[in-house]
Write a structure and sequence with these properties.
With 98 residues, the chain is mainly α. Strands 1-2 form a two-stranded antiparallel sheet. Strand 1 and strand 2 form a beta hairpin. The termini are far apart. The model has no long low-confidence stretch (mean pLDDT 90).
Length: 98
């Protein structure tokens, strides 16, 4: 059974599937703009949260020259060692805290 919703822009009734992206059949405006904005804000927060808790490691591209690959691999080694040491220290603090 399909449901319908009155468009807040043109006032016509359109088929509504309870999706924030549903659009009016007549004017193509969003049927529930508030829900669409909430969904967009939630997606932005999730993306921001993923960026906040991630470590960007050095990327070694296959088309880099041998010298660049060498220095990037040295930098990547230092980066991994640093992340490992910090992780160990945090684990040790958590273990000693109980």
């Amino acid at each position: 059974m399909k449901e319908s919703k009155k468009c807040p822009h043109c006032g016509q009734w359109s088929v509504w599937n309870h999706s924030p992206a549903d659009r009016c059949e007549h004017c193509q405006a969003l049927l529930d703009p508030a829900a669409f904005e909430r969904q967009q804000a939630q997606a932005e927060r999730k993306e921001e949260e993923e960026k906040r808790f991630s470590v960007d490691l050095i990327q070694i591209n296959p088309d880099d020259s041998a010298l660049v690959k060498f220095f990037k691999s040295i930098g990547l080694g230092f980066q991994l060692a640093f992340v490992g040491i910090v992780s160990f220290i945090l684990w040790l603090i958590a273990l000693l805290a109980g």
